[in-house]
Structures are given as C-alpha cells and as structure tokens.
Recover the amino acids of this structure.
C-alpha cells in the first residue's frame, strides 16, 4: 500500500477562555477592573498584544492570590499569551487557575484542554498523556467535549502507543457529530499501524463520504483492498475514481493497467493505456507504447500491437521496437511492411543482435523478389560473427541458383 500521508498530531484551536464562574459573585470584582479589562480587550482586538499584555501585567501585580480579580486578569493574560504563541506563559497561567480556584466541570475541562494544547506546542507530550488520561477516565466528570479526547489520542500516537490511542480516538469521533476529515485521518493512521485493514477501509469510506473528490482517499482505499488480496475490489475502486477524473496520474494509470491485465482483461487494460497516451496523461515514452503493444498482443489484437510498436520506435533511442514490429508483420506474412520496419530498425541502431537483423532482412528481401537488396543484407550480416556462417551460406546459394527467390 502506498504509505498514508502523515496526519498532523493535532489542530490548534485558540480557545478564548470563557469568563470564570467562581464562587465569589462577579460584582465583587469591581466595575473599575471590569472597565480596565474591557479596554485591554480593545487592544487585543486591534492586534496590539504587547500593549495589552503590559497593561494586564500591571493589573495582575495589584491583585491578591486566589482573588476573583486575579482570576479575571489571569483569564485575559492567558488569552493574550495564546494569541502571541507564548505557550509556556499560557500553561503557567492556566495551571494557576486550575490549582487555585474551584471551577465548574465544563470550565475545568476547557482549561485542561487549553493546557494540553499549550503543552503540545512545547513538545511536552508525556505531560499531556499524564494529565488527560486520568481526567478523561474519571467517570464522575463524564467528559463529553471531544477535543481533549482527540488531543490525548494525538499524544499517544506521537509516542507510538497505537493500541491505547485507538479507543480514545474512536471516542473523540463519536462525541463529535461533525468530526473534520483530519480526525478521521488520524483514526486511519492508527488503524493502519495496527494492521486493522478492514476497519481502515470503513474509515476511508467515511472520508470519501466527507470529501468524494479527494483522489488520495480513492488511492488509499484501492491500496487497502490490495493488501487484503482483493484485486477485483481494488480495480473497481480505481475505475470509479478514474470515471470522476480523479485518478489520472501516471502511477494510477499504471496500477489500473496492471490490475486489468492481472484480472485477465488485457483488452480493457490496453484501451485504458491507449486513451491515456492519446490524451497526453501519459507521456509519449517508448516504454509506454511498448507496454501498449504487449497488451494488445495479449488481447490478440495484432494490428493494434503493430501500430503501438511503430509509435514506440518513433520515441525510442534504439530500433528495437521497430524490430519487434517487423517480427509481428512477418508472423502475418506481410513481407514488404516487415522489410521496411526492419530497415528502419537497423538504420536507427542499438539493436541487441544487429547481425541477426541483417540476416532476417536479407530473407525478407528475397521474399519480396529483391535480389540486390537481399545480397547487400547478407553481405552486411557477414560482419557479425554470430550469423557469419548462415549469411555466407545464403550468399553461396544465391550465387549457385542465380537468385531464385521464394524457394
């Protein structure tokens, strides 16, 4: 199977931490502080994070640990730090909030999720696993927010703990009715690592439901069927994708050609390859035309095979394809065409056995009643040790028989 593209470990969400609902009434925090924090929010909205941070830090110095005022300022500073990409400060502020305030469960989970994201940005993967695992396994909390489940699965994957990550990621998707493709891709990578190919197929089908025009999903699905030794299903998937003009790369065409040929469908494989060459999807390389020629031969379409080898000869560096074309024409007893093809092959050069080609060309000229050209071909063949004796015998025979062709 083509290796699956790496799925990003997580998608960072900038969580604007909601107002903390603490036991102390909000009014006790003071209207003056609320107005100052509102002014700071204006700086944040304008993207003036440095100014917002400076003003908020001044306010923080004026608060007492554990106070409602400090919690409000910490919330604002956490927001600024996350927006600035300062994840160390983000995690420090969140930890102070979690450790020093009694929070509703939903808010605590939101903060724990933001903390995990900040830690992931710092590469503190083990911290994330150690913190989220007991939190999510706490039956009293019954965490229904899918995001921390996804983050924990991502962290486990980064440590190659796929067996643990699988149920966690399944839970994340089950809790998110509109889970994005990236989540399903993460699940797919886990299943693939665990060699759960049947389950992987189900996941790729879900991805195709979400994004039917993404060619890589069609390729992955076909590859999974091949891994399960189901070439018929793989071919059906490839053909479906191709019918939507999604699988038109050279490897796609090659794989479909191979699958059709393997499934005893050489004619279909040839037609598909011929269409790709005509459309320019596959480059006019000699090897592609030679492959087409062999496919047509397997389909017992000799004339089409001859045409394909003729095209191959036009693009080849050697005359080998034209020699192959001549052999097919000889089989059909088309002596004039065979002689022309073989002459072209010899003139282009690069043949595996040029002596044999000259010897055969002499015979073809005899079949075409052209004694002079036959004599020249046999004389040329005598330069090659492998056919020297045979060529000399033909020359002797011509001299003794005064050149009786077709005998």
């Amino acid at each position: 199977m083509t290796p699956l593209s790496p799925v990003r470990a997580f998608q960072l969400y900038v969580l604007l931490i909601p107002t903390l609902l603490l036991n102390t009434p909000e009014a006790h925090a003071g209207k003056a502080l609320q107005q100052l924090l509102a002014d700071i929010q204006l700086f944040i909205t304008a993207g003036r994070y440095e100014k917002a941070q400076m003003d908020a830090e001044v306010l923080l110095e004026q608060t007492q640990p554990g106070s409602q005022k400090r919690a409000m300022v910490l919330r604002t500073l956490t927001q600024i730090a996350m927006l600035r990409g300062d994840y160390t400060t983000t995690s420090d502020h969140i930890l102070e909030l979690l450790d020093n305030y009694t929070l509703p469960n939903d808010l605590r989970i939101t903060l724990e999720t933001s903390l995990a994201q900040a830690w992931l940005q710092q590469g503190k993967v083990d911290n994330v696993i150690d913190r989220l695992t007991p939190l999510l396994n706490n039956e009293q909390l019954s965490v229904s927010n899918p995001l921390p489940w996804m983050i924990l699965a991502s962290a486990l994957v980064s440590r190659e703990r796929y067996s643990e990550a699988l149920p966690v990621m399944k839970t994340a998707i089950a809790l998110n009715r509109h889970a994005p493709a990236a989540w399903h891709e993460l699940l797919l990578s886990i299943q693939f690592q665990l060699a759960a190919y049947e389950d992987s197929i189900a996941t790729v089908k879900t991805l195709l439901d979400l994004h039917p025009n993404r060619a890589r999903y069609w390729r992955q699905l076909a590859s999974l069927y091949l891994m399960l030794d189901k070439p018929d299903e793989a071919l059906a998937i490839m053909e479906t994708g191709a019918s939507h003009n999604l699988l038109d790369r050279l490897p796609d065409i090659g794989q479909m050609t191979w699958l059709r040929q393997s499934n005893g469908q050489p004619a279909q494989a040839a037609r598909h390859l011929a269409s790709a060459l005509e459309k320019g999807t596959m480059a006019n390389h000699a090897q592609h035309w030679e492959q087409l020629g062999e496919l047509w031969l397997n389909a017992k379409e000799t004339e089409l095979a001859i045409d394909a080898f003729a095209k191959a000869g036009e693009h080849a560096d050697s005359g080998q394809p034209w020699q192959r074309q001549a052999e097919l024409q000889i089989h059909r007893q088309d002596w004039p065409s065979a002689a022309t093809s073989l002459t072209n092959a010899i003139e282009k050069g690069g043949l595996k056995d040029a002596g044999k080609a000259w010897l055969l060309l002499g015979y073809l000229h005899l079949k075409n009643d052209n004694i002079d050209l036959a004599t020249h071909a046999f004389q040329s063949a005598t330069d090659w040790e492998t056919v020297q004796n045979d060529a000399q015998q033909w020359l002797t025979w011509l001299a003794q028989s005064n050149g009786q062709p077709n005998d």
About this structure: DSSP finds 21 helices and no strands in the chain. The radius of gyration is 37 Å. Residues 153 and 165 are 5 Å apart (CA to CA). Residues 105-121 form the longest helix (17 residues).
